[in-house]
Design the sequence.
């Protein structure tokens, strides 16, 4: 039984408890009722790296915190040009940043004999880095020169202050990077004059646009929204006269094409007034520039990191100007013609006529904007209609209304209302609809933002993609700790760590509105001694499992691997590389606290020369067959290592119906068993499947009691449909 189960003690009451006390009691009660995850086999876990970045062409001394970091002797970066050397034991690392490393945010992991850790973000900038000195009051404010960056963290209940000197009319941008660096800080910033009067405030968020009203000294005040604080509440604060891009239009391009884009932002050298204001009321400038899009998408890109963004094909771009390089913007890739929205198109009589397929670039602007488009379609056509906006990192809730002859065909909302997967939810607010054309004629599609009734923000762009059905899909690969029990609601950062003789499972999520076929999964770039078992995402399903198995005595290794999915549709084979995914911070109950997850810049694997506690393999490598209603009996070989001689809680997974299978006990010290699946009780439909057995087991590791889940190598099964009965002869 997992630790934490048991009787809940009575909570002390009061005659008239306050709402705050009731909330605290309810939270404590939920915590007591939630089973805690038992201690698993140790792997390094990285909590913080500080400072969380540095200047290109420099070196920076960093400290790290986390768990199971003993003997951690190396940092592994997702970007070449970033290297690290360990300092005196326990004193951190010296990170060297090559001059040609492009500004951006990369992943860093720490490796040790136990494997490799979860990633943390590490930023590379072009501005000088200054140390933080004091700064918890206006009187002790730390000096922050214009065009520089400082790293810091806030303590509980405190504020950080920085002072800077500005000239009258000088436009300065204050950017506080937090979430994109995996920080827990939810920043609130204000700018004060020398007398302490508030001149600007962000209210909530990490960006301020400030124009000095006069020559003088000013203060930046920074705190967490709820005044929380810890070493995990860190930030990188930049004060600059350099460029900042709010959005780019259009937000998409043809692959490999040279196209003109308009960049809207602030402090854009050579830019002209845009005639519009940003959501904070500050005027924007615009600058046209030609951009050559890559021929293929970059899966290791900086920028969009929400799990749902794995569905998007595109590239990250930074506008280069005489005043420096701007922040990252994302530009999507589309094979369909890009069409610009033409206002006015709000009323039915103003509907914009378009030719499909196409990728319409529009804006939910001004407030309450409704955009209408019409296209001709023929009976029998199938069109996918989708909006891409929330997945661009925008707080939008797009809504689609499809009509024909002034009659509603379909109202389409986004899918985030009830995400089914809580540990790595890929849901978004963006709607999608499969239109099967019943009759020739004109169809009208109207688009609006359900959040945009009173909000004025030109950054809220969208893509309306109307495309033919095609075998297109995207993938995300997530390393997770499998649930120990049916009510296990924990989530934690994980890494792919493979021990000698062991097998690990990597969940692969598919984004495929159009592509319904089976996706074959493979891994490339594996080191010697590591193999990938036959794995797939079944036809029509949105996830599958990839298995990696190590030889008994592998060499230690850390590096990036590529997880590839292939889908065959007729004579066409479509191949896609998976983005990586990870949980940012541990959560003990995802019903109480939302899981924060993100995409990673690569998929990292560590091979440890330690032995896995157990191995489970089928006695034969073959396709195991049984008829519908029959019985599968699969002999399994068990290899036990070290002090893992306990009973195994064994159950199969991977085919429909197996989730109801009651786990069975395998005797302690048993070296063989038979995996029996009664197909009269577990009604698996006819077909071929990749299944596996997983076992929960207890043991000791370096003197500590641990409980861990072991995976077998994948097993191919075939459930045969009954032979059709021969017709009875006529009498």
Sequence:
């Amino acid at each position: 039984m997992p630790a934490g189960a048991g009787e809940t003690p009575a909570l002390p009451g009061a005659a008239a408890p306050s709402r705050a006390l009731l909330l605290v009691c309810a939270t404590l009660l939920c915590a007591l009722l939630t089973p805690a995850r038992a201690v698993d086999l140790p792997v390094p876990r990285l909590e913080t790296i500080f400072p969380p970045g540095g200047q290109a062409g420099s070196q920076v001394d960093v400290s790290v915190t986390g768990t199971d970091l003993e003997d951690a002797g190396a940092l592994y970066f997702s970007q070449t040009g970033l290297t690290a050397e360990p300092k005196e034991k326990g004193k951190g690392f010296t990170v060297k940043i090559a001059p040609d490393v492009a500004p951006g945010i990369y992943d860093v992991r720490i490796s040790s004999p136990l494997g490799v850790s979860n990633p943390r973000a590490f930023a590379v900038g072009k501005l000088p880095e200054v140390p933080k000195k004091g700064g918890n009051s206006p009187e002790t404010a730390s000096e922050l020169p214009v065009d520089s960056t400082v790293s810091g963290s806030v303590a509980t209940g405190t504020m950080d202050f920085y002072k800077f000197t500005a000239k009258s009319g000088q436009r300065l941008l204050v950017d506080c990077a937090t979430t994109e660096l995996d920080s827990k800080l939810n920043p609130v910033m204000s700018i004060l004059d020398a007398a302490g009067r508030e001149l600007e405030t962000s209210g909530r968020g990490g960006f301020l646009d400030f124009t000095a009203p006069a020559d003088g000294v000013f203060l930046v005040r920074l705190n967490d929204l709820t005044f929380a604080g810890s070493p995990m509440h860190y930030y990188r604060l930049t004060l600059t006269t350099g460029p900042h891009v709010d959005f780019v239009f259009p937000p998409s391009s043809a692959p490999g094409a040279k196209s003109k884009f308009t960049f809207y932002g602030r402090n854009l050298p050579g830019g002209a007034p845009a005639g519009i204001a940003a959501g904070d009321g500050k005027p924007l400038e615009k600058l046209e520039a030609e951009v050559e899009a890559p021929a293929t998408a970059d899966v290791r890109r900086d920028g969009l990191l929400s799990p749902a963004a794995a569905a998007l094909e595109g590239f990250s771009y930074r506008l280069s100007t005489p005043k420096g390089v701007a922040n990252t913007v994302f530009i999507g890739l589309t094979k369909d013609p890009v069409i610009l929205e033409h206002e006015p198109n709000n009323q039915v009589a103003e509907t914009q006529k378009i030719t499909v397929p196409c990728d319409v670039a529009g804006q939910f602007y001004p407030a309450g904007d409704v955009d209408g488009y019409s296209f001709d379609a023929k009976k029998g056509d199938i069109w996918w209609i989708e909006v891409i906006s929330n997945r661009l990192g925008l707080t939008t809730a797009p809504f689609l209304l499809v009509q024909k002859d002034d009659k509603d065909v379909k109202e389409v909302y986004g899918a985030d209302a009830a995400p089914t997967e809580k540990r790595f939810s890929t849901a978004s607010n963006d709607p999608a609809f499969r239109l099967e054309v019943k009759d020739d004629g004109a169809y009208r599609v109207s688009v609006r933002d359900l959040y945009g009734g009173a909000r004025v923000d030109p950054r809220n762009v969208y893509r309306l993609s109307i495309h033919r059905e095609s075998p297109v899909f995207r993938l995300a690969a997530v390393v997770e700790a499998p649930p120990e029990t049916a009510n296990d609601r924990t989530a934690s950062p994980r890494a792919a760590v493979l021990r000698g003789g062991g097998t690990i499972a990597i969940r692969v999520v598919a984004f495929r509105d159009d592509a319904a076929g089976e996706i074959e999964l493979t891994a490339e770039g594996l080191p010697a001694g590591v193999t990938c078992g036959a794995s797939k995402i079944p036809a029509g399903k949105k996830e599958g499992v990839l298995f990696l198995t190590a030889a008994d005595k592998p060499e230690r290794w850390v590096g990036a691997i590529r997880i590839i999915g292939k889908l065959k549709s007729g004579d066409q084979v479509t191949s896609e590389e998976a983005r990586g995914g990870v949980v940012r911070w541990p959560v003990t109950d995802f019903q109480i606290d939302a899981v924060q997850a993100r995409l990673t810049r690569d998929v990292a694997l560590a091979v440890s020369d330690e032995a896995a506690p157990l191995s489970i393999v089928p006695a034969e490598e073959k396709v195991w067959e049984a008829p519908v209603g029959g019985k599968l009996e699969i002999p399994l070989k068990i290899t036990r290592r070290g002090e893992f001689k306990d009973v195994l809680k064994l159950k199969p997974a991977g085919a429909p119906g197996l989730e109801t299978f009651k786990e069975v006990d395998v005797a302690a010290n048993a070296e063989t068993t038979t995996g029996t699946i009664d197909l009269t009780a577990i009604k698996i439909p006819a077909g071929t499947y990749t299944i596996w057995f997983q076992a929960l087991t207890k043991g000791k590791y370096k003197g500590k009691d641990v409980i861990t889940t072991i995976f077998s190598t994948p097993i191919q099964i075939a459930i045969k449909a009954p032979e059709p009965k021969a017709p009875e002869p006529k009498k």
